[in-house]
User: What shape does this take?
Amino acid sequence: MEKKEKALLESTKDSKENKEIISSAFLCPVLEDNELKCPHNGVVKLKSKKGKSFTSKDIPMILESDLINSSIVGCTNNIAGVPTPCSLVSVILPSARALKKYNDDYPIMQDLCVSGVLSYKGFPI
Assistant: This one.
C-alpha cells in the first residue's frame, strides 16, 4: 500500500510541476522572429517598427501598428479554382491585444492571435 501512495504522490508532484511550466508560456507578445500563418499556410512577414525598443532576448516585439497591413506570402487559397490568396493583415480585434500600451501602441499576444487577427479575406491568422 505504501508503494502505491508513494507513486501517487510522485505522479501528483510531476503533474503540478508540468502545469507550472505550461502556464508560464501563456500570454507572451508576438516577437519579430515568430511565425504567424493564415489557414492556407501563407506566412505573415513580421517587421517591428514602433516595437523595436522593446525586446525579449534581443528580438523586437510586434505592436498593433507593426502588424496591421503586414504582407502575407505563400497563401494557397482557391475559391472555385480561382486563386484568391490572403495577402495582408487587415483586422486586429481588441481581444488580440495586451491591456498595457508600449510606445503608445498595444502589443499583440501570441495566444490571442488566432481569434483576433484576420486577413483582408476574413480568414484568421
Q: What stands out?
A: Residues 21-25 have pLDDT under 50 and may be disordered. Helices lie at 2-23, 64-67, 113-116.
